[in-house]
Design the sequence.
């Protein structure tokens, strides 16, 4: 029996809420609401999952879950998810547990929570994957920092080797000339790039950007920044 729809969220809002949860919280980044009517029991689709959304006050019964199970088709690797605002009957929960369907419930205020073992397992797995990505980023950043430091030391050593000791003493003894403001653009830009290299870890959305893109941005910006600072240093010594 179809119950009376809840207030605040429309059925369409509920579908987009479920798609957003799947994208940002459950790891299905390509999840999207189906555009066509007559979707055969599927409201949100992803390469690796399908979901049905019901914004009812009454509980979901076993037939709705059977419809979702049948709508998956022959690809048994796809995850099955069901989102309901009215909860689930005991028979529905039993059927979901037997067929590995993740049951979620959502409220009018857009909060959501898992309702069975499959949903809790899927949620924990997604959280663990995000934590693993953060660990990978931390390790990658540390490696990039070590390589940048080693490169800066090599540049310093090379500069010291290319300038004889008597030239260094002569340069140090010579009166310093005033440096015009335009000559400092290298060091200024270098500092800006080094600061910008930290943005991916503090300002970028980790849920919508890949670890590889953040690490690449950090490595490129930090490397350019260090090279500009070293260039400014060499120019200043001359």
Sequence:
């Amino acid at each position: 029996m179809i119950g009376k729809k809840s207030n605040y969220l429309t059925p369409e809002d509920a579908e987009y809420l479920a798609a957003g949860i799947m994208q940002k919280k459950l790891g299905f980044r390509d999840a999207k609401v189906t555009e066509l009517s007559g979707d055969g029991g599927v409201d949100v689709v992803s390469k690796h999952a399908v979901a049905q959304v019901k914004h009812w006050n009454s509980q979901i019964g076993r037939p709705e879950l059977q419809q979702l199970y049948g709508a998956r088709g022959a690809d048994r690797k796809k995850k099955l998810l069901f989102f309901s605002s009215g909860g689930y009957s005991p028979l529905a929960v039993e059927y979901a547990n037997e067929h590995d369907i993740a049951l979620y419930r959502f409220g009018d205020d857009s909060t959501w929570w898992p309702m069975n073992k499959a949903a809790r397992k899927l949620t924990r797995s997604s959280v663990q994957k995000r934590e693993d990505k953060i660990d990978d980023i931390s390790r990658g950043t540390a490696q990039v920092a070590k390589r940048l430091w080693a490169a800066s030391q090599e540049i310093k050593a090379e500069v010291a080797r290319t300038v004889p000791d008597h030239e260094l003493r002569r340069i140090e003894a010579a009166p310093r000339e005033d440096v015009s403001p335009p000559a400092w653009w290298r060091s200024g830009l270098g500092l800006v790039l080094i600061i910008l290299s930290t943005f991916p870890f503090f300002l970028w959305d980790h849920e919508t950007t890949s670890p590889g893109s953040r690490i690449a941005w950090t490595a490129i910006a930090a490397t350019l920044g260090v090279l500009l600072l070293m260039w400014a240093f060499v120019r200043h010594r001359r």
